[in-house]
Task: inverse folding
């Protein structure tokens, strides 16, 4: 069979990883795919920059549109990242009848609805396994392997930078700022870490996960997003004493009335599998009504793991190039005319356990007042810890983990506690996730 | 589009789970697959037996061959289990041009080579995700998601019964016999537990994993297989003191000279993810050269999880029914003419860490002699533990964990230790797996 010609847009870390992997494992990949897959053209900003791969046989230029329109190119591989230019190029590739593979979560989360509609109309496939959790095949797992299930929830550590920072705070006892600086030194965090530490990168990925799990349109702008900046080492310690680890999770969860899509720091029981995922690793837990809990673990970033998913998509694309579009796996797991528009719930309707820490004057009746307020809102208590604060001798710190409760009710309790005369400033609140492994 | 008609062979626990799942999640499944999937005929031993599912609309009879030859049946679902009858029915279904889905590991491990050759010749697909690790999508992960990788090794807890027994021995402090009886009471183990406790069930699964990981023919009869019968509670305790858990693993691993395919009790560092997989759960770790380590966790058995994988295969089959066979995922991950015949190594060539326990007379020079014997074979020591035995006051028990070593060399050391005048009967040896999470 004829080789398949790939046109590569962007030859940075991931692009070089793909070229290197296709060359290193060429014979095994061809043995699996049935056809040789080769990168014949690439477009880059500066053709004279040094590359992390052998570019022999690749025609390197600067014009992305020339590649997108080249009739000899069978599949366009978009690895330039970012939003607008990538969108225009992918739409142009689709318009010229080419299949597309991309690792761009930002692009898919924001423009996926438009892109998939165009691809379905043009009879081409846009693949994006590498856009979520790097080398972990979570898109295929949810979209194909769990296709028989009513997915109840998905919860994942889907930002390696954030997880690395939290692991360092836990095990090295460093502050958030020190851990972030360490992550930047090691190349796990960008110079501008906003996307990672504010939860935006995780929200991009969660938009994709939520869509394929529930058959809803990509809904990035409806995601509740909270980052890890400002998590105190104290809370990491107290959580540990209570039997929990603080993880930054993306959670997509069904309720009767709609779906929760939320990204925030979360307390996870130290016995749960997700609690033991350390450093820059990712893990995603998916709960289907038939299969029960399943977990997928691996490297969420880096040239090799990302290239692994990109090339898997290329192999799938090659296998599908002869296929009637109706027979393909739908882009968003459900057939395009079967996407539904379920309500996406906001914070007051979230339902989960809660952790809060409040500093109060150490006097009789305080704990009674706090627990009474919880009881009044019918919120059960899972664990209570009381400690002397590092300073302020006459104060006490109270840490409480509640049983699952509607967030609206918990907020009433916290408002009440804040209003009490003996309550100090700076109440800390985090959500708790209870998982059934 | 026309509904797809499934002919079901066998309506036991898994069969009822499939019928129930197809009915319960009908609308979501149709939204994903693009066509309605319905079981229209089933063949059972006794049509009057009560069923665990609503069989309305299913024509239930006793003649499997009538279903296999029914022109109105699009896909045959083989769930009768066992070897010979299942083989004949699957081969007949292929001969009549029907796609097949099966959960039968025994069948695939022993007759897969013949079955896949016939299916490729007939242009039909035989799917078997449920044959390995129940609801965990490990076949698709290795065959499709990691297709860009040179797979270095796969190691998995792939027999839930065995893992349950080992967990009970660890946490309840019971003996092997007591834990087995408990597993039987709870329905995790068959009345005749031979396949589970002797490692045969795990070897069936490992044959399939090894084949799709390395592109070699199914090689069940070449697998080194050791069960969990006879593991002493003492060794579970000592292993724990040394920082290890004993797990029953299936391991497929490349060496320069060939591949290791082995099933045996294995010490795993308590820090490794696989160590924390408890009870009847399964987990498989796959190490690819590009992606690094990945882990897949979930329920390895039961009606719901197995039905989840069976119905995923049905959905894949429905999507592929319009597809050119050349474009499909190859049965054994590699194209049929690209299967190679690598040497399969035997025990002396296995390379891993080792644990051994030996009871000796407590006299000067014994430890020196044992460690000298290891050094002479160039085997490094990872950890040493010495204990008084429960009885025999003048004896000592020595437990050693070695660094990875060729098994041939370790056997020489053990033979030497056995031959020493102060060595008692009953030296215990187990292998250790070192994983990079």
Result:
């Amino acid at each position: 069979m004829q080789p398949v010609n790939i046109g590569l847009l962007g030859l940075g870390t991931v692009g070089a990883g793909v070229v290197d992997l296709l060359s290193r494992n060429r014979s095994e990949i061809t043995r699996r795919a049935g056809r040789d897959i080769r990168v014949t053209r690439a477009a880059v900003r500066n053709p004279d920059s040094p590359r992390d791969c052998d570019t022999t046989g690749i025609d390197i230029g600067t014009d992305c549109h020339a590649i997108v329109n080249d009739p000899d190119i069978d599949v366009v591989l978009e690895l330039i990242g970012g939003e607008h230019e990538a969108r225009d190029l992918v739409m142009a590739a689709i318009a010229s009848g080419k299949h597309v593979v991309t690792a761009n979560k930002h692009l898919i989360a924001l423009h996926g609805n438009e892109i998939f509609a165009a691809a379905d109309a043009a009879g081409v496939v846009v693949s994006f396994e590498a856009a979520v959790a790097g080398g972990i095949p979570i898109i295929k797992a949810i979209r194909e392997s769990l296709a028989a299930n009513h997915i109840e929830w998905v919860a994942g550590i889907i930002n390696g930078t954030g997880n690395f920072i939290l692991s360092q705070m836990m095990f090295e006892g460093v502050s958030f700022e020190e851990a972030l600086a360490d992550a930047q030194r090691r190349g796990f965090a960008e110079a501008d870490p906003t996307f990672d530490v504010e939860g935006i990168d995780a929200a991009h990925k969660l938009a994709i996960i939520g869509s394929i799990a529930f058959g809803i349109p990509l809904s990035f702008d409806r995601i509740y997003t909270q980052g890890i900046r400002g998590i105190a080492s104290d809370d990491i310690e107290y959580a540990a004493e209570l039997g929990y680890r603080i993880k930054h999770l993306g959670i997509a969860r069904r309720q009767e009335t709609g779906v929760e899509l939320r990204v925030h720091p979360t307390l996870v029981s130290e016995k749960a599998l997700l609690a033991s995922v350390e450093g820059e690793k990712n893990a995603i837990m998916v709960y289907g009504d038939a299969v029960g809990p399943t977990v997928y673990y691996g490297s969420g970033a880096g040239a090799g793991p990302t290239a692994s998913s990109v090339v898997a998509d290329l192999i799938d694309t090659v296998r599908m190039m002869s296929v009637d579009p109706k027979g393909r796996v739908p882009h968003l797991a459900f057939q395009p005319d079967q996407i539904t528009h379920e309500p996406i719930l906001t914070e007051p309707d979230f339902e989960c356990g809660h952790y809060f820490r409040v500093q109060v004057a150490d006097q009789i009746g305080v704990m009674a007042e706090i627990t009474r307020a919880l009881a009044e809102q019918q919120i059960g208590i899972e664990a209570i810890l009381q400690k002397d604060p590092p300073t302020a001798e006459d104060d006490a710190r109270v840490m409480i983990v509640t049983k699952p409760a509607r967030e609206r009710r918990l907020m009433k309790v916290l408002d009440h506690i804040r209003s009490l005369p003996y309550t100090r400033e700076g109440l800390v609140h985090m959500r708790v996730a209870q998982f059934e492994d």
